[in-house]
Amino acid sequence: MGQEGRSFGSIERRSGYFRARYVGADRQRHDAPHLFSERIDAEHWLGEVHRSISREEWRPPVKVKGRPDDLDTLAGYARHCLAERELTPRTREEYGRLLEKLIAPTLGAIQLKHLEPDRIRRWYSTVLSADRPVQRKHAYSLLRSILREAEDEGLIDRNPCRVRNVGKVRRTRDIEPATPAELNKLLDLPPKQGLPVLLAGWCGLRSGEVRGLRRRDLDLTEGVVRVRQAVTRTKGQVHVGAQKAAAGTRDVGIPPHPIPYLAKYVAALPMTGRDGFLFPGGDGVSPMSEKALRYAYGKARKVIGREDLTFHDMCHSAASLAGMTGAPTAELKAMMGHATAGMVERYQHATRASRSRLAENMSKARGDLRPVCATRSSGGRSHIPWSSGVRIGSLLRLKAAEGVHHGTAALRVPGPGGRADGDQPEDPASPDRVRSAPGLLQRTAHPARPSGGRRRHAASVLAQLSP
DNA sequence: CCGCTCTGCTTGCCTATCTC
DNA sequence: GAGATAGGCAAGCAGAGCGG
């Protein structure tokens, strides 16, 4: 049935997939450890096995982990490596899957010293599917890191992983953050469905963080939620533990208006003590399961009419909303539990409303406002007219550093009577305030020197803005 | 229908290193 | 020095299926 005669091995169609089998040097029949979606992939796999038998590099597929004599082969050495590493359960599980499913079946029996760049490239281009770029990247990255260890230990002369540009995987969709009006509709839902989503949308909590909240973490008097742990899971096991990054442990302010709803929800919870989970699972003791939260979220996004948003997009919404209030980057980092300003930037998105406001403000500014921006230099802050052609990348960093955000046309100027040196509180500037702050309009003594292409791009953008 | 578990796979976060 | 790229790890998404 769908089987074909071949000089080496056989390929058989099974439920829409292709199964490869062969007789090894041990005269025993062996199956490929996984099915192939394309016949050509199965043929390539058999070709690899055939070559390894011809070169007397083939060994029977290894089932038992960690046998000392396996350490010469890639599979044995890789298993040994992963066993030695300190990994979280989830990562260990994932690495094991990549190794056993994608790496070991094709390359596992090969001795480390016989692994060559050409063979790795063939494996990368034939076994790893380009349709799954993330999995492809991860499998390759794992193999490269294992072979780097082998190189460090002197087991191989040089790491044979030389494929270039493996790490480029980009976000494939734009996120339109939820608006305050949409988030407020969550209060119409049953509390167990609406409140977890509300904490994500207003406070920027991730799914695992929401599920890991305990009653003691919610201080409704202070209006603060304390993020101290998160829930993860592996096959058949739920893990409740500290945040992966130190910055993830944080206190986040709760907007005042949902607090009465939270208080009412907490008061109605069964008595399980302050260590009890805020959103318990069906047994009342363990944390709400990931799937239960997803179910609740499915209901919630239907009610607010935003079925395009994922749960994690709620974190982006919180960051974007906070950003639009003019919150400094340091506050946004603390709120979101990020360690870098770059991550804050990544979480900022323009909303429809903010885009409209930006366009309006630009329209008002045209003809009577010369745009300026401020930057830091070693001696403090200098002021650079946009027309000096400062690099776009510098502007983006400035925006993060100075609290100027996507979706707003606000510029920072000294507060009333204040200096522009960072020691004084600052307000978002109106066009009038900008005009009345002559210090901001002066040309910097040491203007940035951008590259030609970026300078031309900046100039073309500015030409449309300037009078 | 609801609430849940299991599982395979994808996406995101953060930091280090390289390149221009 | 800034931006780009790579590396390592963690978390999220969603289909299948089960039981009440």
Provide a descriptive summary of the structure in words.
The protein has 467 residues and is of the alpha+beta class. It has three domains: 10-152, no CATH class; 180-336, hpI Integrase, Chain A (Orthogonal Bundle), CATH 1.10.443; 364-465, no CATH class. Helix content is 43%, strand content 12%. It has 18 helices and twelve strands. The chain has helices spanning 39-54, 74-84, 89-107, 117-126, 133-152, 180-184, 191-203, 207-212, 259-268, 290-303, 311-324, 329-336, 341-346, 352-365, 392-402, 431-435, 438-441, 452-465; strands spanning 10-14, 17-23, 29-31, 218-219, 224-227, 229-234, 237-242, 250-253, 372-377, 380-385, 411-414, 426-429. It has a three-stranded antiparallel sheet with strand order 1-2-3, with helices on one face. The protein has a three-stranded antiparallel sheet with strand order 4-5-8. Strand 4 (218-219) and strand 5 form a beta hairpin. Helix 2 runs antiparallel to helix 3 (89-107), helix 7 (191-203) packs across helix 10 and helix 11 (311-324) packs antiparallel against helix 12. The longest helix is centred in the first third of the chain and has 20 residues, at 133-152. Mean pLDDT is 60; it is low at 1-5, 62-69, 168-172 and 365-467. The protein binds a DNA duplex (20 and 20 nucleotides) through helix 3, helix 5, strand 6, helix 10 and helix 13.
